[in-house]
Write a structure and sequence with these properties.
By secondary structure, the chain is an all-alpha fold. The chain has 12 helices and no strands. The chain is globular.
């Protein structure tokens, strides 16, 4: 249930890449969340669940606590394969969103759950509704791009990522995802430029650093310079364009 640096493995919408979060409102709730994350990482899901329940009891408006509780319940549901557990996880994800309408990890987890339970159309409506409510939020478009790529629609995924970068030129997640798609399309110089921009914004991406090193050695400095990124000039709904 943990997310690798997006998209290190790469740009996949799977429960394996849903991350727990350890922040929270209030010292007591934050401590319970941190302890719950530690227990979850150790594989003690029942004890982790108890800590997250304590976090939301201490702070009923703690969206992170509800998200962590939902994600842990989701993990256990995948093991038990019981509909009641899946329904409980879905309910908890929705309670998280009631408290934080722009909780990125929660949208991702809920979209995964809906798709896993045979409701990809509901996943799509969830993410499109998020964009409609928060049109200036780049992360919402990144998550819809993630879903589209998982469904095999790389053209739509690229369009949403270009829109995300247009909204937030320094969004490292959007830049990394866009670089990944460009690399898949053989646009190596442009992919390298996007990876480099992403790494400049967030240095704690070992997977991205590895891609930069690999592509730089294969592209060479002149080709990399020729592929200098022009992503930030994209406006409106971009067309499918080879850069």
């Amino acid at each position: 249930m943990f997310r690798t640096p997006f998209p290190c493995c790469l740009f996949a919408l799977s429960l394996g890449f849903v991350a727990l979060v350890s922040t929270g409102c209030g010292v007591a709730s934050q401590g319970m969340n941190v302890e719950g994350v530690r227990l979850h990482q150790a594989g003690d899901y029942q004890a982790a669940t108890q800590r997250f329940m304590q976090a939301v009891t201490n702070d009923p408006n703690n969206a992170d606590g509800y998200y962590n509780l939902a994600a842990t319940t989701h993990r256990m549901a995948r093991q038990s394969r019981t509909q009641a557990d899946f329904a409980q996880a879905e309910n908890l994800y929705n309670q998280c969103l009631d408290r934080d309408p722009n909780h990125v990890e929660c949208y991702r987890g809920l979209a995964v759950l809906l798709a896993e339970s045979g409701r990809p159309d509901a996943s799509l409506r969830l993410l499109e509704g998020w964009i409609a409510r928060s049109p200036a939020l780049a992360d919402a478009k990144v998550e819809l791009a993630r879903f589209k790529e998982e469904q095999g629609d790389q053209i739509a995924a690229r369009e949403h990522l270009l829109q995300a970068v247009s909204l937030d030129p320094n969004n490292s997640r959007a830049l990394t995802a866009l670089a990944h798609l460009r690399e898949l399309s053989g646009e190596t110089a442009q992919a390298l430029a996007n990876y480099q921009r992403s790494l400049a914004q967030n240095q704690f991406q070992p997977g991205v650093a590895n891609r930069v090193a690999t592509l730089h050695s294969s592209v060479g400095p002149r080709a990399a310079l020729a592929g200098s990124d022009n992503t930030r000039v994209a406006t409106g709904t971009p067309a499918w364009t080879r850069y």
